[in-house]
Each structure stands twice: as C-alpha cells, then as structure tokens.
Amino acid sequence: MAKESANGEHHTTSKPPPTPSPLRNSKFFQGNMRILVTGGAGFIGSHLVDKLMENEKNEVIVADNFFTGSKDNLRKWIGHPRFELIRHDVTEPLLIEVDQIYHLACPASPIFYKHNPVKTIKTNVIGTLNMLGLAKRVGARILLTSTSEVYGDPLEHPQKEEYWGNVNPIGVRSCYDEGKRVAETLMFDYHRQHGIEIRIARIFNTYGPRMNIDDGRVVSNFIAQALR
C-alpha cells in the first residue's frame, strides 16, 4: 500500500501477515493420528476424508455400508498407503484402534430414510452407541454430525443452539429427526458419565460436488427442477 508523506515522498507499507487460525494448533491438524470416518463414502464424508488426507502424517479409515455412499467418491484414495476402506454397517460393533472418530454414518436424504425408516433410526441410535463405545474403549475424541432437523418445525427464527425445537415424534420423518436427537443425548450422556471428549455439528442444508441430484433435499430438488 502506497502513502504520500507531508514532503511529497511516497512510502510503501505492507500489510501485517494474517494471524494464524487457532484451528492450526487444534487436534484436527495434528499428525500421526489414526482417524475413523463413518459414512466417509457419502457426500459430506468424502470431502472430510479429502481434508484429513491433506495431512501426510494421518491415517484415515473409512467405514461405510454404501447404503447411500459410493466408492466413486473415494476413488482417488483407494490403494493409498495411509487410507483404508472398510465395508461395515455401524449398527454392528467395530473393533479398531483410532485416535479420532468422525461419525457421519446415516441416510440424510428424505427419499432413503422414508424408504427404510427402521434402518435409519437404528443407524442413528445403535450406530452412535457403538461409536461411543469404541471412543470410550480407546480414549478417542468423537464428533457427531447432527442436523437442523432436531429443531423440527421451529417457532423461533433463527434458531439458537439452546432452542429445544418444536418436534413431531411420530411423523414419517421422525426416524431421522428423533434419531439424531437421541444420538445427541447419547453423546452428552457418555460425556457426563464416562468423560468422553465429544463434539456435535448440526449441519443445515448443504450442497456441492458429489451431491446426489435426486436425493430429495431442498437444494438438489431446486437445481433438478431448474435444469429439467
């Protein structure tokens, strides 16, 4: 940036370097970690895997039953020495040694969870129990991807994290909504009772590469209808 002084001379000043993000010192960026990503072959999960694999000291293990995910989303990592892909349903226990768990496994599309509501709620409840049991056994930190659907049909806009929601426990979408609410409850119960280090991310409408255009969500429906 150039500035003119009182005597007419020009001086060039440079901007100070940006302050490094505190995330750079967080566990997310620490190396030599074995990281489990459930549902890692899905839309959001595969992008998370890409980010985790940027750290050349990390080993990443993906567990996915491919109910909604696809191997194509992980094709560039298959065969990589720091990457492992396991065909596994999280409703069954998983015996593995890891430092971190990112628990994304669950059908998030209305089309899929209305087609198989029992599997959806089992994935949310039993799958989360299994991942929390694993975190307790190995001392891993666990992050659960939850959803804005925990607020139901909210009466408050925008919703604060402390808002409890306005929910329907018996509707056709409840297998997903209530399943995520139970999963969040389990996370906090394991934290309070067993000292498990937890994180919960409530994800709202998300779109981007690898998104299934026919998955029945708001953004994909809008784009599909516009294109057709």
TrEMBL record:
Pathway: Nucleotide-sugar biosynthesis; UDP-alpha-D-xylose biosynthesis; UDP-alpha-D-xylose from UDP-alpha-D-glucuronate: step 1/1. It is found in: Golgi apparatus membrane; Golgi apparatus, Golgi stack membrane. SUPFAM superfamilies: NAD(P)-binding Rossmann-fold domains. GO terms for molecular function: NAD+ binding; UDP-glucuronate decarboxylase activity. GO terms for cellular component: Golgi cisterna membrane; Golgi membrane. Residues 1-25 are annotated as: Disordered. GO terms for biological process: D-xylose metabolic process; UDP-D-xylose biosynthetic process. Keywords: Decarboxylase, Glycoprotein, Golgi apparatus, Lyase, Membrane, NAD, Signal-anchor, Transmembrane, Transmembrane helix. Its EC number is 4.1.1.35. It is a single-pass type II membrane protein. It catalyses: UDP-alpha-D-glucuronate + H(+) = UDP-alpha-D-xylose + CO2. This is UDP-glucuronic acid decarboxylase 1. It comes from Anthurium amnicola. The lineage of its organism: Eukaryota, Viridiplantae, Streptophyta, Embryophyta, Tracheophyta.
